Amino acid sequence: QVQLVESGGGLVQAGGSLRLSCAASGRTFSIYSWAWFRQAPGKQREFVAAINWGSSTTVYQDSVKGRFTISKEYNVNTIYLQMDSLKPEDTSVYYCAADRDLTNTQRMQQMSAYDYWGQGTQVTVSP
Known about the structure:
Distance between the termini: 40 Å
Structural class: mainly beta
Strand content: over 45%
Number of helices: 1
Order of helices and strands: EEEEEEEEEHEE
């Protein structure tokens, strides 16, 4: 089993920045694919960004390209989502997800592809 714990959420003004962290523990040696999803009130959970560190592949939702960056710190089994130029529409609960080895970029964007999920961290962007 793999456990994921997100942190770093909070309240920020539009135009500001936040860095989310996702700390992984357990049988992480088999995990190569990591992603961030988000869910706003009354909306479905949606893909934000993903990374496969074996292939160095990254993929982003169009609305966050150029503003968000997903990365991984290998020696501490933590992934990050650096969020810059935040907008009120980025307000959501952000979830970290992980799976063994996803290399297809379409598959990396699908919730059903991920077996492991964190509990989420709230990000609120004020106008």
